Amino acid sequence: MNKKVFIFFPDGVGLRNFAFTDFKKIGEQMGFDITYWNNTVFSLKDNLGFKEVKIEDHIAHPLLPFYSRARKRVELNISRDKFNDEVYPTYKFPFNYSGIKNSLKSLYTQVLIGLYNSEKGLVKLRHKINRLERSTSKYSYCKAQLEKHKPDVVFCTTQRATQSISALLAAKDLGIPTVAFVYSWDNVPKAMQVVETDYYCVWSNLMKEELLKYYPFVKEKQVFVTGTPQFEPHFDTRLKQTKAEFFDKYGLDPNKKYICYSGDDETTSPLDQYYLEDLAYAVRRLNDKGYNLGIIYRKCPVDFTTRYDAVIKANKDIINVLDPLWKQVGEQWNQILPTPEDFKMLYNVCEHSELVTNVCSSTVFDFVAHNKPCIYYNYEQPQLKKGIRDIGQNYKYVHFRSMPSDRAAVFCRDKTELEGLLKQILDGKLSNVEEGKQWFNIVAGERPNGASRCIWEVINTILE
Q: What keywords are assigned to this protein (predicted)?
């Protein structure tokens, strides 16, 4: 009899990796009976024809947000003291004191931090969060679903969603093995390990070392290195369009060479529009010298600000906007979901651009998979003032310490360097591709195109 696997989506971030890739198809070929346990507003049954069990009760304990924020800050305080490293406080979002309600929430969270601010306190805090979530109607609801459908294992598609805690506790209390996939390359040092499961799938040996370092309650035998399905589409040549097809579809000039500007979210890069403007100026100067260049601007899928509009309008002769093919199905950032068509678009943007430029994004890996260089902007904008976050702190984060050398990306440390760096790359005299691929392997593992199969092999091992 085929083993029954619940693929659990606590929110929408896992859809890209586990619904829109070949992940399900590979699992079915290996003989698994797959049901999607769906806590999102996106219907996998209606949109993709997948077998799903919908979670309709979304009630978390009213104190959960306070305890979760406290847990994160306590973890970061412990890391700061344990590793004698001031990078950890920079991961904290500031408290909100605008209005009485926000002030009271912030003060209550600070009281909890004071009560639990130690390694022993952190253990108590995690137990407290579990007790709170076991008392909710959602816990009972999820437990009843599991008792009815009797899965052999629950695979949670992200470790960072508080919406997953009650459901996974219900599974553990019923003796059903639970597995969590660590979602993003920067998540472990940032104290984003919200859930405790029986097993964990991580991208690479680096991520495994981090998980064991930051979470001593996790044992080595619980952690499996699998890679991530995130990059698999870049190795799927079925997605490739000819340059002529791609340019024709999106109204690009076949005589131009294009540089991709990959936009960032407002938190990471609040002055991102000015880097796009700098690129436009540099492209104009190069075009005056005989180059024939254009810019493909691909925004961050969860950025709905109008901050780029003036720059795009002023440079509409050289900037082509190719918005990601994502759908907004709710108000929160994690309810803006990718469509399968976006894989094809991103594949061909990477394939048919000369290079990408951005602020500290993982798109460096998307592009090196296509042997294309990446420029990282790493200089302050003159518009920077008190209260606006300097992008320079991004490059001090722990996940950037994984770079094998500072040549794993091309760093632009001064606006005046940009034109020269672009020229060198376009002339074939500068590239980060070789070192970028080494970095890609460190971060995403040795088999970036075989992650889905590897995850199913791990699930099989756990069930056996």
A: Transferase
Angle, vertex CA 165, rays to CA 162 and CA 167, nearest 5: 125
Each residue of 235-264: b (16+ CB within 10 Å) or e? eeeebebeeeebbeebebeeebebbbbbbb
* CA–CA dist 319, 86 (Å, integer): 40
Cα torsion at 230, 418, 410, 260 (round to 10°)?
20
**DSSP tag of 93:** P
- Which of these, 398, 309, 320, 382, lies nearest to 352 by C-alpha position? 320
pLDDT of residue 333: 54
Question: What is the tens place of the pLDDT at every residue in 170-198?
Answer: 999 999 999 999 999 999 999 888 899 99
Looking at the chain, the number of H-run helices and the number of E-run strands are: 17, 15
350 and 436 in contact (C-beta within 8 Å)?
A: no
- Determine the average pLDDT of the residues in 289-303: 94
Look at the alpha carbons of 134, 160, 234, 438 in this order and tell me if their dihedral is positive or negative: negative
Report how far apart the first and last C-alpha atoms of the chain are (Å, whole number).
13
Contact indicator for 70, 116 with CB cutoff of 8 Å: yes
- DSSP-derived secondary structure letter, 3: P
Q: Rounded to the nearest 10 degrees, how much is the dihedral formed by the CA atoms of 427, 432, 433, 439?
A: -170
Q: Could you give all domains of the chain from N- to C-terminal order, each with its CATH number?
A: 4-60+136-227+448-463 (3.40.50.2000), 64-131 (no CATH), 237-444 (3.40.50.2000)
Dihedral sign from CA coordinates of 156, 160, 164, 168: positive
Q: Give the tens place of pLDDT for each residue, 115-154.
A: 999 999 999 999 999 999 999 999 999 999 999 999 999 9
- Residue 331's pLDDT band, with cuts at 50, 70 and 90, is low
| Residues paired with residue 37 on neighbouring β-strands, in sequence order | 8, 53
- Which tokens hold the place of 264? 């960032």
Distance CA 325, CA 136 (A): 36
Q: How far apart are CA 51 and CA 44, in angstroms?
A: 7
